């Protein structure tokens, strides 16, 4: 892992921590516990969208790596298997 990788991951983790704190503060501002609970459930339902966005970005990046390369070459580059590369690419194809 490079210093740049580590620093970028730390910034991403901080963004997630900041977002969680902002969401929690927003929920805490709702006095009615029934309404707060309902909003928390709705907010929780939004989380898969974040996961989809990150998966799509990963898939697009692996597709970029795949240009002119074999699955095995890409697998070696990312430290995975050809099956993993194929699976990641298929996620992007489903969009």
Short description:
With 95 residues, the protein is mainly α. The chain is 84% helix and 0% strand.
Structure description:
With 95 residues, this protein is mostly helical. The radius of gyration is 18 Å and the shape is elongated. The longest helix is centred in the middle third of the chain and has 34 residues, at 33-66. It has a domain at 47-95. It contains 4 helices and no strands. It is 84% helix and 0% strand. The mean pLDDT is 95.
Mean pLDDT: 95
Gap between N and C termini: 30 Å
Biggest sheet, in brief? none
Low-pLDDT stretches:
none
What is the count of β-strands?
Answer: 0
Order of helices and strands: HHHH
How many helix segments?
4
Layout: helices, strands, pairs:
Elements (H helix, E strand, L loop, with lengths): L2 H26 L4 H34 L4 H8 L3 H12 L2
Provide the descriptors you would attach to this structure in a database record.
single chain; 95 residues; mainly alpha
């Amino acid at each position: 892992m490079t210093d740049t990788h580590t620093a970028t991951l730390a910034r991403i983790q901080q963004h997630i921590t900041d977002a969680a704190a902002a969401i929690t503060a927003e929920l805490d501002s709702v006095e009615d516990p029934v309404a707060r609970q309902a909003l928390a459930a709705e907010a929780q339902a939004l989380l898969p969208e974040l996961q989809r966005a990150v998966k799509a970005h990963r898939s697009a990046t692996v597709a970029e790596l795949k240009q002119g390369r074999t699955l095995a070459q890409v697998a070696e580059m990312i430290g995975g298997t050809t099956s993993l590369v194929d699976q990641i690419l298929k996620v992007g194809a489903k969009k």
